[in-house]
Amino acid sequence: MMDAEKWKDTILAKSREYMEIGVSVASDLTEKGKTQAKILSNQAKISRAQRQLGALVYSLAKGNEENQPLVDKYIDMIDSIEQENRQLKAKLTPTEADEVEHVVQTEADLADVMADPAGEEQPADEPADAQDGQEAGPAKKFCPQCGAEVAPDALFCNKCGAQL
After folding, report:
1. pLDDT for 50-108, tens place per residue?
2. In 3-state terms, what secondary structure has residue 60?
3. C-alpha to C-alpha distance for 107 and 103, rounded to whole angstroms
4. In the 8-state DSSP scheme, what is residue 117?
5. Pairing, β 149-150 against β 141-142
6. 3-class SS of residue 163
7. How far, in whole angstroms, is CA 146 from its chain's centroid?
8. Contact 93, 28 (CB under 8 A)
9. 40 with 32: CB under 8 angstroms?
């Protein structure tokens, strides 16, 4: 009878040990998944901010205007997100970081194809949305600081520089 009790206690102890290992592994995988998702989310923010920065610089140059403080805000924001991504990638193994980088590159390639599926150049004086004959998409958005109209996905106001 004693051997059966000892055997039962051994089995229960091993079961608890394996359960704790499983919980630990699942927790680690969850954290790595969250880290990878945050990196991808940050990369999308960086891409959007870079597009907006390019549009801002273009509109300022076209209007023969300058707004270096606003340009600097975009650059600082992009730098801070890139720094956060470097810190997040440092938490991953080299293989995991490479996997995230591969997904980022694949998404960037897909975005390029979706933006120009036929591989054709847009006329410089005609916006991409106007070519499809579609009307403006989302509702207009305005800066809460100065009231100027801003792009629906803008991060800063092009007129006053307020963060949106």
Report:
1. 999 999 998 888 888 899 999 999 999 999 999 999 999 999 999 888 888 888 888 77
2. helix
3. 6
4. T
5. antiparallel
6. strand
7. 28
8. no
9. no
DSSP secondary structure of 122-161: PPTTS-HHHHTTPPP-SPPEE-TTT--EE-TT-SB-TTT-
Would you give the DSSP letter of residue 92?
Answer: S
Give the CB-side neighbour count of residue 50, counting CA atoms within 13 A.
11
Q: DSSP states of 11-49 as a string?
A: HHHHHHHHHHHHHHHHHHHHHHHHHHHHHHHHHHHHHHH
Chain position carrying tokens 């956060």: 84
Residue type (1 letter), 63: G
Query: How many whole angstroms separate alpha carbon 87 and alpha carbon 129?
Result: 37
Which pLDDT belongs to residue 116?
A: 65
Cα Rg, the chain, nearest whole Å: 25
